[in-house]
Amino acid sequence: MRFKSHLQSPRNASAARQAPGKRLLRKARSAVPASLDINMSSFEQKFEQAVKDGVFSGAILMAKDKSGKLDYAKSFGTRSMGENAKPLDLNTPLFLASMTKLLTSIACMQLIERGLISLDTDVSSFIPDLAAQPILHGFDDNDKPILSDRKKPILFVHLLTHSAGTAYDKMVPVLEKYRDQQGQPEDRATMTTKCVYPLLFEPGTYWSYGTGIDWAGKVLEKLTSQTLQAYMDDNIFAPLGVDRIKFTPFLTEEMKKEKATIGLRIGEEGNLINLPDTKNIDYGDVE
After folding, report:
1. Which residues are registered as beta bridge partners of 155?
2. Quick check: is 218 catalytic?
3. What's the pLDDT band for 12 if we cut at 50, 70, 90?
């Protein structure tokens, strides 16, 4: 397939995720005995040392089992890099990023249970901006994009399983090049503005990690006439007694003030710095 060379292979993807502290964390993980009645000091010392060494600014470890015999929680380090950084504690709001994909998937499966949609529903009418996108095969000798019309339908299941043809432009060179040619969206653009660009392959024919579940969230909003935040509040968070999981536009003032800063590794040495802002990874209307 022509698009295949544009996608990150599993081997390369694994290598790309390697971090300076990976071996240390693996050792820390293996240091935990099987028994629940244990002394955690040696395990915790490894995380404390990792903070001192700059592997990360802070971490929160939590473990709990259904019986209640295991109930462990501890914070390490600070909320950001820097001498005056505030300590990280168990109540510090943290950036969930793509972990919201799980929550969105749960919400979408609830819609299926309630008969509002099925996995095999063609979602083109709900998300016409995505449905109108062609497939990008690369660039010709004159650096013009090679595009073709999509022939297969985009099903709800494709959005939920990363098989709709969507991808994150920053992770795929040909998409990043296409976006550079077209011009980047404004900071904190809406989800539809930021994520409207060509597919990489026909829906249901391949797999690529990307924006599919983001688009599934837009389908949910159309079906329920609610924001994704409001739907999750009513159908997931409230039943669980949770009130401190918010998409960025819905953060309380307290959460904005207290939230931890995202770390960013730069240079060949992978030095850790504070990410100045999240404008390039937020959506103005969703995250």
Report:
1. 122
2. no
3. very low
Two tokens, residue 135: 């497939």
- Domain 99-235 indexed as CATH 3.40.710.10: yes
Domain ranges of the chain: 12-92, 99-235
pLDDT tens for each residue of 108-159: 999 999 999 999 999 999 999 999 999 999 999 999 999 999 999 999 999 9
Task: Decide if 261 contacts 79 (C-beta within 8 A).
Answer: yes
- Cα(287)–Cα(168) distance, integer angstroms: 15
Let me know if 209 is a catalytic residue: yes
Active-site residue, from 105, 177, 209, 259: 209
Q: CB count, 10 Å around CB of 156? A: 23
Q: What are phi and psi of 210, to 5 degrees?
A: -175, -145
Tell me whether residue 101 is one of the annotated catalytic residues: yes
Q: What is the pTM of this model?
A: 0.76
